[in-house]
Amino acid sequence: MPKFRINRLNQSQLNYELSIRGLQTGTVDKMRKSQAIKLEKEGGSISYPNYPYTFEEDKEAIVGVVSKVEDNLSDAQLLSPASKRYSVNETLLAYALDRLDHIPVISIEQTTWKSQMFTRIKNLSICWKGSWLAKRSS
Fold first, then answer.
1. For the whole model, what pTM was predicted?
2. At how many degrees (to 10) do helices 55-73 and 108-137 cross?
3. What is the pLDDT of residues 83-111, one digit of tens each?
4. Residue 53 CB contacts under 8 Å (≥ 6 apart), including other chains
5. Whole-angstrom Cα distance, residue 130 to residue 110?
6. Residues 6+ away with beta carbon under 8 Å from 55
7. Helices 55-73 + 11-19 axis angle, to 10
8. Is 20 helix (H, G, I), strand (E, B) or coil?
9. DSSP class of residue 7?
10. How far apart are CA 77 and CA 81, in angstroms?
11. Whether 34 contacts 85, CB under 8 Å
12. pLDDT tens per residue across span 40-58
């Protein structure tokens, strides 16, 4: 899965990416220009503060993103890599996996949900890309 493209994230997703790095949030344009995000995009690194989100907040955000990509799966024109939505969906899946990876789990139920969601996201990525390839070859 490629790294996310900051120009494809919405305001709440950018807020998340900056807040987990301990950085201030603001307008979408200001957040996209964040030096920390650019540094990580270019392969640099920064130190992360304590994780500021709860399991429920992460769960809600991830389920919303995955549902949006699932809704897009049935629309054939969105499956072409040349389309803008293809890049958006690819970025959303990368964002969902990144956020899933950061979730601190404290119960067996949370661990189970996290494992099931990981499988769902990976299967969605395979299904989504496979559907495009199948449509392309027919």
1. 0.65
2. 20
3. 677 778 888 888 999 999 999 889 999 99
4. 16, 19, 20, 102, 103
5. 30
6. 103, 104, 105, 106, 110
7. 140
8. coil
9. G
10. 9
11. no
12. 555 555 566 788 899 999 9
- Residue count of the chain: 138
- Tell me: pLDDT of 132 over 90: no
Give the contacts of 61 (CB within 8 A, at least 6 positions apart).
12, 13, 16, 99
Kindly list the distances between the CA atom of residue 137 and the CA atoms of 76, 90, 128, 131, 132, in Å, as whole numbers in the listed order. 13, 21, 15, 10, 9
Instruction: Annotate 88-136 with DSSP letters as a single string.
Output: HHHHHHHHHHHHHHHPPP-SHHHHHHHHHHHHHHHHHHHHHHHHHHHHH
Residue 54's contacts (CB-CB under 8 Å, 6 or more residues apart) are none
Q: Of 128 and 71, which is predicted with more confidence?
A: 71
Neighbours of 138 (CB within 10 A): 5
Encoded amino acid at 122, one letter: K
Tell me, what amino acid is at 40? E
Nearest alpha-carbon partner for 117 in 74, 73, 50, 67:
67
> Is a pLDDT exceeding 90 seen at residue 60?
yes
